[in-house]
Amino acid sequence: MEIAVIGNSEFILGFRLAGIRKTYAAENDEKLNECITSALSDGQVGILVLNSSDMERLPRRLRATLENSVKPTVIAIGGEEGGLSMREKIKRSVGVDLWK
């Protein structure tokens, strides 16, 4: 399983420096949708990281797909967390509430 990061070039830079290989620069909405669709169909991606402001810009149907996705687990970071909490996402992906 790999981590994929999608966002503008400033957002993905830190992840690239940390060694994440699957980083996709998406400077406009069309490219953002294209990259997300590609990551969702990639069987090697286990975690998909997005900027929460990018998540807000997505069409409602695609956003709902991401919020309900178990594989890959989608994490929106930065600013408002939006959607489910990190605890809920881990619970959904692992199947157990690790905080109990």
List the helices and strands and how they pair.
Blueprint: E1 2-7, H1 9-17, E2 22-25, H2 29-41, E3 45-51, H3 52-57, H4 60-68, E4 73-77, H5 86-94
Parallel strand pairs: 1-2, 1-3, 3-4
Detailed description of the structure:
A four-stranded parallel β-sheet has the order 2-1-3-4, with helices on both faces. By secondary structure, it is of the alpha/beta class. It has helices spanning about 10-15, 30-40, 50-55, 60-70, 85-95; strands at about 1-5, 20-25, 45-50, 75. The mean pLDDT is about 85. Helix content is about 45%, strand content about 20%. Helix 1 (about 10-15) links the parallel strand 1 (about 1-5) and strand 2.
Supply database-style keywords.
single chain; 100 residues; alpha/beta
Beta-strand content: 15-25%
Helix share of residues? 40-55%
**Class by SSE composition:** alpha/beta
Largest beta sheet, briefly? 4 strands, parallel
The count of β-strands is 4
Q: What's the alpha carbon Rg, rounded to whole Å? A: 13 Å
Identify the strand order in the major beta sheet: 2-1-3-4
Q: Can you tell me the residue ranges where pLDDT is under 50 for at least 5 consecutive residues?
A: none
Terminal CA distance reads 26 Å
- Let me know the average pLDDT: 85
SS summary, helix count: 5
Order of helices and strands: EHEHEHHEH
**Apparent shape:** globular
Concise structural overview:
With 100 residues, this protein is α/β, with parallel strands linked by helices.
